[in-house]
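Case study B.
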Amino acid sequence: MNVLWAILGGLANVGVILLAAPLAQGLLRKITARIQSRQGPPLLQPYFDLLKLLGKEDIESGECPSMQRFAAYLALAVVLTLACLLPMGFSAPFGSAGDVIVLVYLLTVSGICTLLAGLAAGSTYSLLGISREMMTMITLEPLFAIALIVGAVHTNSLRLDTVLNGSVYGAAGIPWSGVIMLGVMSLSFQAFVQRVPFDISEAETELMEGPLAEYSGPKLALFKYAQMAKLIIYSALFVALFAPWGASLMFPIGWLLFWIKVFALVLLVTLIAATHARYRIDQAIRFFASLVGVSVVALILASYGY
Amino acid sequence: MIARDMFEQFEQRFGPLIKRADLPSDHRLFVFIDPSSVKHVCQHIFRDLDARYVASIGADDRPFTGKFLVAHNFAFDKDHVLCSAIAHLPPENPRIDSITDFVPAASWAEREMRDLIGLEPVGHRYPKRLVLPDGWPEGHHPLRKDVPWNELPDSFDDTREFNFDDPPEGCTVVPFGPFHPTLDEPAHFRLYVEGEMVRGCEYRGFMVHRGIEKLAESVMCYNDIPILAERICGICGCVHNVAYVQAVEEAAGLQPPPRAEYVRTIMLELERLHSHLLWVGLAGHIVGFDTLFMQSFRIREPIMGIAEKISGNRKTYALCVIGGVRWNITPAIKIELRQVLDQLENEWAAVVAAVTHDKNVQKRTCGVGVADAALVKSTGLLGPVARAAGLEIDCRRDHPYAAYDCVEFEVITERDGDVWARLLVRMKEVFESIRIIRQCLEKMEDGPLQLEIKDELPVGRIGLSSVEAPRGESHHFVITGENNRPRRWRVRAPTYQNLQGVPAMIKDQQLADMTISLGSIDPCFSCTDRLETIDVSSGSVKVWSQKELLNLTRMKGRQP
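Model:
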């Protein structure tokens, strides 16, 4: 019975993400447009965009079409798997099954999809794009991993439902490590969701979308869908890890609070993206590297109980 | 020093090598020199007298004087003199000493002469094909007078590919263009990249030549050409329109009425306004700051509107005829224009305040794409690029035309010569343009718009005109001719010089800075692409010949 509920809960999460992701994208585009004194597309435009792309001819191109297809499938599959594992206004469906290590792996795999996509295209620009993506991954992925581990250290557990519940503040007294990680993650959040100023690996005006250059039609739709979902998933992760307050309230209130927080985060991402210029790869890497340094300090503090 | 004094100096120094001189005014000097002395004279002008290199012109003068003609134009900005050193070459096997040893800025101009007229620059360090398309046969020079404007040589080989240089060791080639989101026009930079660092590049441009000069010299007439001239560029078209007309007026000794001069000034400044606003927006877009792009385009819109009210068109105003202008600034438009300027000034001040305090934009532009004063001088860089490096050159003040001698304005300069400095220069120039237009509206008096011209224009006279386009000095050279059309009309747009500085600007920089460095000269490829008629496009996998492509488009066209 328990297993059945878990599976149903996971599927419900997937459904919610698939439905909500384009809406968040639509909201993002609308707000961006308003900041730029434009009318902007209708709120539901991303749904139509995806439908249109899905209905287009499926063109095989690039150096290795089968890998290109695989990368697109994998990209969406990975984010949807992530969706199964996260608490989305309720407790995490597979709370007792997986642990946070799986999360760390899955987050990395979603970056690897971009690498595969770029390799499959095999053009100079896509290769440049993946070399940037790889550099970003190496410096960026440790941040989320450390945040999760800080939580795990505080709670002495790797269980999803324990860690993804504001566990970073688990220290006695002032939760220094949690506060530091909150700062670090807020500063790097833009990069995790691949928005300006950190959309370096597919910078349109420099690399012509880089790894995605060869994508079109349904496969592009899958990749775009995955990117939209990523925005919500990372927001949900962030909320669960750093701002879980009110999650335990009774059904409509706790659930509503959760989604309000997620959409507030989307709004924040939009505002930052609309008011910044893109960083150069070396500037970004230097920035991430200093954040990694700070978060290592947080990890040490956490292991001493602060 | 005025032109006469300069000529006397030349005569003392070079004696019989100077054959004669024309001194139409205190501000123009045409010296006719012996071809053997071209190197010495140019070296003296450029090095000892510290003149600024402007352009080199080759012309086929055989039907008239039996000789070829080469002119090297220099500007004495402080003395307000434009000087042209002209040499006649024999009709058989025309050769001339290259001046690129000490004037690197003349490199493209000499390569263009070699391609189009067949004048061999002796001692040029890099005499590679510049303008002609890949399949064009050697030894066939389309700008010669005996070649019809619509001729395609029989030996044209549309399968031949361009012979690119080998990249330096350890570098990979990153093709930048011909189609790239930040290039709105086709141009090809072959970048040699080591990791993320650019180590060098080769440029192959001139891909959309429209044969404009040839067309003007062979089938159009004096008053058609202004309309053609403004189609050289989609943004600074009015500049070419005015520059051509001024060159012809100067050659023919015509003085347009004062009101026409004011109208020209106003339209030129309106054009600068919308061009600079466009550029600031594009620069924002290139570094991923789309909000800046959208806002400057919103602010720019009323300027396009008022231009449409004046001329009937948002762009390509069709402003000038020889001896005057076609549009008037009516009292109603005057009131509206003032309102537009007030609104623009307020809104632009807000944008400038926001951008100048933006650390994020500074991070992407400070120290990027640096062109220092030495590079500016040797490569002949112009306009905001030169002014950002601290060189105070501005044709509006140095070689006044239209009504610029009647208005006051400041020449904006910065010191660092990087993209940030260019951004600042352009943003501040907007305020100066607003000032100029206001003064024009104030001082303009009623009067005729066009000169009545009763006689035919004299033949064989030379006219020069430098107009400060938003991107730098646009230089036009005209020799008047028979049949109501010029014998030779050469256009040197500012991008023609500025592009030659790009390889030095992007060397040893991050690849990510390439786009903004190139963007910072405000490149206008259509301005450089004036001359040829045929282009061969090549795909990466299969090389399509021109015929195949044409057939392909025709087939597409026939589909329902």
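Chain A has a mean pLDDT of 83. The remaining cases will be described in the next quarterly update.
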